[in-house]
Amino acid sequence: MTLMQFRTPRTGASALPAFLQGASVEVMPRTAEKITDFRDHLPAGTQVFVAHIDGTDASEMQATVARLAREGFAPVPHIPARIVPDRAALAQWIAAYRDAGATSALLLGGGLNAPKGEFADSMQMLDTGLFGDFQRLYVAGHPEGNRDIDPDGGDAQVMAALRWKKAFAERSDAQMGIVTQFCFEAKPVIEWVNKLQAAGLDLPIRIGVAGPAKLQTMLKFAIMCGVGPSLRVLQRRARDVTKLLKPYEPNEFITRIARHKADNPDFAIEAAHLFPLGGITASTDWLTRFRDA
Predict the structure, then answer these.
(1) What CATH number does the domain located at 3-291 have?
(2) What are phi and psi of 15, to 5 degrees?
(3) Are 267 and 201 in contact (CB under 8 A)?
(4) How far apart are CA 127 and CA 116, in angstroms?
(5) Which among 52, 178, 232, 238 is least surrounded, fewest beta carbons within 10 Å?
(6) Which Gene3D superfamilies has this protein been placed in (predicted)?
(7) pTM for this one?
(8) What residue spans define the domains of the chain?
């Protein structure tokens, strides 16, 4: 083994705790109810994104946001355009989240095939001018494409939307960032970020990371959420009988991202965003273990 071969994994290992310091976590109101006190699981000030799934009452979202703020965290409610009834409801939700302690929000189209109200995408919501009181607005990112937006498998519409959002940030002085879907392979993610930066789309990025879960659970969510090329990582693992009963952990993926960030400080990924597919406790335990290593 050469000296260079010996140093490479150590560089990745040492980069990982620093990279995970600013990690955020995603919860839903119904899963958050199972946690007695988030202070037993996360450092004070952690950004906790609250996912608004179709069928969840707005009052449940607001109660979860308020609870997280009381416990000392920075709640970031999702606002999916296609489930918002109308402009009046959007204004009401924004005011309620602000009063509950939220200073940031994630704006996204939402998973419905057709809008329930007057909004079809996050750009239409941004155009209302109702988000001026928020310190930061996040939008969705798709490192492996999104066939709901680009049915041909390309990225023309996704890139056009990101250019619009970057222009909005420049003309409004809004602090904007990108939060991506979870991925399993570092190479396509790094190539996607480099492509954005080369196109002048230099918004800070939180890269989606799938928290520890059974392989069957991970495959189910990956297919449901349209994860693309990096799904092959799970498929290869599924063919290895020795790994079928072991929970998947994102160690290799996130270590490669952390190492690349350490070697390239201007790389636009600023932090990890953890999707607790195997449960909040499993994900926060994993995060603590590697962040405090």
Answers:
(1) 3.20.20.220
(2) -75, -25
(3) no
(4) 18
(5) 232
(6) 3.20.20.220
(7) 0.88
(8) 3-291
